[in-house]
């Protein structure tokens, strides 16, 4: 059986290199047959695509897509550099 | 010094626009002319560096009421279309820096902006050096060439204030939050060393989504990581006090 560290590395690489996602900053954790994705993306479409790519890279694992969608807020207070 | 006479720089990086984002970022830039004199975009404008995405970015930034200066990031290089994307942005009125400089007239002041994508290599004491295999030497030589270009451009530019715009980070401090193991892929101290030697008032960069906003070079130049996920807002605004300097 493949060590979970190698499976996690393969999933991470797939999310970075797959043309549908190209997302570099997603954390992958594997516990038994459970695969967890964590991180932040800017839209729900990207979260879904990451789940799909991760699932294809490790279809034998049960996927938990815990990636958060974070929308950019209004510009806040200025910073004065004096 | 009143706020009105400060030079107001809006900055953001890593907007990563895809084809389904058309019109979304532009909405967040409404009214930017009341908040800032210039917008600087610190690379990773696209997701995969395709022409279609480059066109989305160009349309989002086209015709803004304030000047826009941008550099590309590693994502914008992914499809080997970086020159075409830069051309598309320039056609839309964006000044795209590629290891060179530009002077923006802001009211009665001249703001010099120098920069480019930057590159990695790591930070003093824990970095790659030009030694051994050709691939490693090429990696470090690329960063060294960029740093040297910035130094020359900074020395040559004639402006009252000087800002450096990069994608990769010149310091470790603004990477805090990222795993230390990947720091060599996030920036290089050679960039900071060059800017410290030539002098500047502010360095802006992106790339490190999990990093921290604020830091400083060993020479005391303020550094801001303006990656959108770090800011959590459409852009930040930094005011340079033109009388007092930094």
From TrEMBL, chain A:
Protein name: BON domain-containing protein
Domain BON: 7-70
InterPro entries, A to Z: BON_dom (IPR007055)
From TrEMBL, chain B:
Keywords per UniProt: Hydrolase, Metal-binding
Record-level GO cellular component terms: membrane
Family matches, as Pfam families: Metallophos (PF00149)
GO molecular function terms noted in the UniProt entry: metal ion binding; UDP-2,3-diacylglucosamine hydrolase activity
Segments crossing the lipid bilayer: none
UniProt KW Hydrolase keyword: yes
GO biological process, one term: lipid A biosynthetic process
Keyword Hydrolase: yes
InterPro entries named in the record: Calcineurin-like_PHP, Metallo-depent_PP-like, Metallophosphoesterase_sf, UCP008292
Superkingdom of origin: Bacteria
Name this polypeptide is given: Metallophosphoesterase
Native source species: Nonomuraea phyllanthi
